[in-house]
Amino acid sequence: QHQLVESGGGSVQAGRSLLLSCAASRLSPTPFCMGWFRQAPGQEREGVAHITLREVTTYADSVKGRFIISRDNAKDTLYLHMNDLKPEDTAMYYCATTRDFIGPCDHAEYAIWGQGIQVTVSS
Question: How many CB atoms sit inside 10 A of residue 48's CB?
């Protein structure tokens, strides 16, 4: 069974940084797309950042210039460096991967999801 486990969330003040990690296990072959999503209470889930196997990245406009997505395929780990955090970044964050898919990651159907981790930013 495929498994994704997020870590690194928590509560911080606005302007601070957090590093989210997502450890993957039993993913074979290495997924083409990996991504971070978030969902705030009462809002729809949104894609935050995506990265291809060739490390091409895409970002939501709301996080461009502040967040950086990266992946270490040797360690089967996905990262999200979140800088200059704002209260509107408060949400549950999920990592996800595709399966049997090659194409634009920001339009992909993600098949495998982590359980989510809370990020809370206070003003």
Answer: 24
DSSP 38-95: EE-TTS--EEEEEEETT--EEE-TTTTTTEEEEEETTTTEEEEEE-S--GGG-EEEEE
Tell me the per-residue pLDDT of 7-48, one tens digit each, with 9 for 90 and over.
Answer: 999 999 999 999 999 999 877 788 999 999 999 999 999 999
CA neighbor of 32 nearest in space, from 101, 92, 83, 95: 101
Question: Could you report the per-residue pLDDT of 47-82, keeping only the tens digit for each?
Answer: 999 999 999 999 999 999 999 999 999 999 999 999
Beta strand pairing status for 57-59 and 33-39? unpaired
Closest to 33 in 3D by CA, of 42, 43, 44, 24: 24
CB atoms within 10 A of CB 70: 14
